[in-house]
């Protein structure tokens, strides 16, 4: 009987869907509880100007210390947080925590915070940023917001307004994962960026792959002609650094210089990361 087969098939399909949907709903609920109970944390990864041998600052990277599953990386929960809207309170928590943390550091150190497309599209970001700066006492020039090309393209007019408002506060804006989106050149021309973060996909094979090298050169040339600094993401080896150096890139971030770490690991209490920045083994080799 065809009908019952169809019914059974539909029920089976529904059951599978239910299960996936339930898992996601559970995860979303756990995220909400974790935010209330303080199970999210920020790790910080050093950004260096290797030409001058100096630390520029740190990027805040979100971590979820799940009560039973352990540490969960943002790529596994940020998309769900965006779909459910939880990224709004979570993103505000990130901004507040990162600014409060950086306010305790050496004042030469900047702090970079990732901003989601949903935050760009749904809240008055300049107002939130102004409020957080006021509450934490962080100097605006020390804050940089990282926005991906994709996020901007998804919210063009709102993104443009938000970015102008943010920059009017004296806060800088970086375009994250540059080269992985689709309207790179037009985006750069229209939107007021202070820095380009060249995606690590182009750094990975830099020493061996001619195409990666060509793209890196093109982005550096673009940065020079538009007067925007270029920071290379995901630098892991001395060879990659040597190529970047030879091509005139001066700023980088990656495991070669330091892994993202909890604030306590960045510096002895009170000293701020600048004091210990030269100390971690990876940075010692990378900075000289
Ligand atoms: P992203 O902003 O491009 O951050 C850089 C990512 O590359 C981080 O992954 C970092 O740990 C990793 N990384 C750094 N150096 C190296 C390297 O040398 N080699 C390799 N293979 N990887 C390196 P993470 O922490 O897992 O974050 C992944 C993405 O999640 C971030 O990419 C960002 O898009 C998003 N994210 C992280 N924190 C936040 C946040 O607070 N808010 C929002 N909206 N998104 C966040
Ligand atoms: Mg980033
Ligand atoms: Mg990136
Ligand atoms: Mg990324």
Automatic annotation (TrEMBL):
- Domain EAL, residue spans: 24-274
- Please give the superkingdom of this protein's source: Bacteria
Question: What's the protein here called?
Answer: EAL domain-containing protein
Organism, per UniProt? Ancylobacter mangrovi
Taxon lineage: Bacteria, Pseudomonadati, Pseudomonadota, Alphaproteobacteria, Hyphomicrobiales
Q: Which residues of the full protein are shown?
A: 394 to 681 of 689
